[in-house]
Structure formats: structure tokens, C-alpha cells
Amino acid sequence: MYSKKIAFLVLSGTLAILATSAAAEQLVTSLPDGSKLELTLPASWQSTHQTAGPSVTVRLSPAGSGAFVVLLTVLPVKAGAPASTPEGVRAVVAEQGNRALSSALQDHLEITEIKGPQTIGYIFHATDRSPEKGPGDYRESNQGAILVGQHLISVTILTHPGDSTTVDEAKRMLATARIGLAQDATGNSASDPKEVYEIGLPEAGWTVALALPGYRIMAEQERPDGQGKMMQASNDRTQMIISVFVEREPGLGSSKKCRDFYWAKDRRSPIPKSEIVLSERDSMALVTWMVKEFQGSRVMQRNVKAFLGHEDACVDIHLSKVNFRTSDEQLFDAVLQSIQIREQPVKHQAPNPGAAPN
């Protein structure tokens, strides 16, 4: 029964769900990496959560009854991992979802897309062939996952037959999901929109700056060894997504060498690419390509990667947009022309007037 068959699934589909309930409550759950999950809960839903290593599992149910259970497991997802893009997670879930049909009444997979200002995700519905054995047993299961910045939320919605209301409410709730970052000492949230964003490595003496008006920072992470940093941002109005990676790579040093190094890895991705063009712009080495279709779905995703080599580090900036049209090229240009290396002034310690001369 599905109460014991909780899968970690992600799929893609066609239906966008954006509405929220007027009588809802805001759920904020702290995550182990210092960020926080924010959700708008339907009225009368209650929550508990449990932390295990890097993940947090949130359990949602109706107050005072066990009519349904919704389980959300939040995990950070590494850049470049199969589940770090909608296309990649679709491939993972398609395989797992088809396997789930072996014990379901359905004979084919029907996928629903969940989409919100900061989320995109996918779920499928399956009905267990075995009848329910009691109130705590659920025959109906909607499973999948949503991608929120650099976090993946595994979703399981367990209901009794005929309870479509709970499923619809859960879908609307998932569309409100966002990952926020803890406030700094000034009270500002790192997820607030920024006009100019800077990212750099500790003690490097320089940063990469780019203009991001209208973009919201969705994720920021630093490698434990301090040798790399990343960020991801999105623009709700234009649907542009940007990620920036800065990593120490001794021995490379030039923009072209950084491009050759990273692009050799990117090309091994199973996602089909077309119209690949390598070029240079100012001090940057570029790669542009299209992902027109993925597993039968038309996505028309335009991708531009800009590489910079500076001192002993490489900068990898990835811009992308689905449903690309020629008029969208200006959105890419606006970001590309703003990219620059900013040298930080060297801080000298002021002399102590009372110190004895050497």
C-alpha cells in the first residue's frame, strides 16, 4: 500500500497551478543548510517536521483527523546533478513512475505540472490495486517532486478514494513553495531582488559583478573547503534563470581554457543540444545552444554560458530561458554586457601611534 511506498520522484507535464487559498496560513521551516522552506498552507492543515542529515521531512495532515497525509522531503541538489534541471528530473521520474504502474490500476502515466513564481515540478497519480485495510491505509497516491532553486522537494500525497479536494489544495500549496535565506545582521534577506550582484572567493581580492534588476536570489552556497561558491537567481517576469559558479582551478587561468574544461563535462549530459556555437565576447569565452525538445515535449530552451578566467579561478555563468523567442535575445545581452571583474582594494592595517619605532 502507498503508505509504505513513498518514492522520490520528479516528472514533467502540462498543467500549471498558481492559485492559493484566501484562508491559508504561512509555514516557515528551517533547513540544515541555513535556508528556510516557505509554503502557504490550506486552512486547517497542521504540520510537523523531522530533520535527518541534510534533509527535512514535513508531514501535513488535517487538524483532528487522519483523512489524508502529505509528505514533503526537502534536500539540497548539487549543480550539474540529474535533478538540478527540469529536463533532468523528468528523465529520472519517468523511469520510476513507469515502474510504479506495476502495482497500480492505471495502465499509463498521466503527469501534471506544478508551477509557481519560484517552483516547477511534476506529479503523477496512481491507484493501488489492493483495497484499503483501514483508516490509516491510503489507496490513492499522487507522487512527484518540485524544484525550488537548488533544492528538490520530494512529494507524496496520500488520500482515500474520491478525495480530489485535498489533491487540488496540495497542488496549489506546492506552487507557493519558495526557499528563502536567513537574514543577515542588517535584517536584509539574501533572497530579495538585487540591482547588482557580486560573488567571489574568500581572500581572493576580487569579485564577479553582474546587473540583475528584477532577479531574485534563489540559492547561495559555498564549498566546505572555501574553494568554490555558487548562486542561482530567477526573474519572475521574464522567466530567465541565471546561475554563477566561481571555483579555484589552478593551471587554467584563461577564459578559453576554463570554457574548454567545463564544456567538455557539459557536453556529456544526455540532454540533446542543437545549434551549438562557441564564440568570444570581450574577455569572456561563450557557448550557446538550444534544447528544443526533451522526451517528446517542446521546451525551446535557449542557453548561454559565459566563462571567465581570472588568476587561479574560473567563473561559469549560465543563462537560460524556456519558450525562447528571438525578441528574448536582449534579455541575455543585458546580463552579458554587465559582467565584470571588480578588484577589491587592499586593506592595510593602520599604524599604532603609540608603538615604538623599529
Short recap of the structure:
Strand 1 and strand 2 form a beta hairpin.
Describe the model:
The protein has 358 residues and is mostly beta strands. The chain has 2 domains: 2-181, Protein Transport Mog1p, Chain A (3-Layer(aba) Sandwich); 196-343, Protein Transport Mog1p, Chain A, CATH 3.40.1000.10. Helix content is 13%, strand content 43%. The protein has 4 helices and 20 strands. The protein has helices spanning 86-100, 164-175, 255-266, 329-336, and strands at residues 25-30, 35-41, 45-52, 55-62, 68-76, 111-115, 119-127, 140-148, 151-159, 178-181, 196-199, 206-211, 216-222, 228-235, 240-248, 274-281, 284-294, 297-310, 313-321, 340-343. It has a 7-stranded antiparallel β-sheet, with helices on both faces. Strands 13-14-15-19-18-17-16 form a 7-stranded antiparallel β-sheet, with helices on both faces. Strand 3 (45-52) and strand 4 (55-62) form a beta hairpin. The longest helix is centred in the N-terminal third of the chain and has 15 residues, at 86-100.
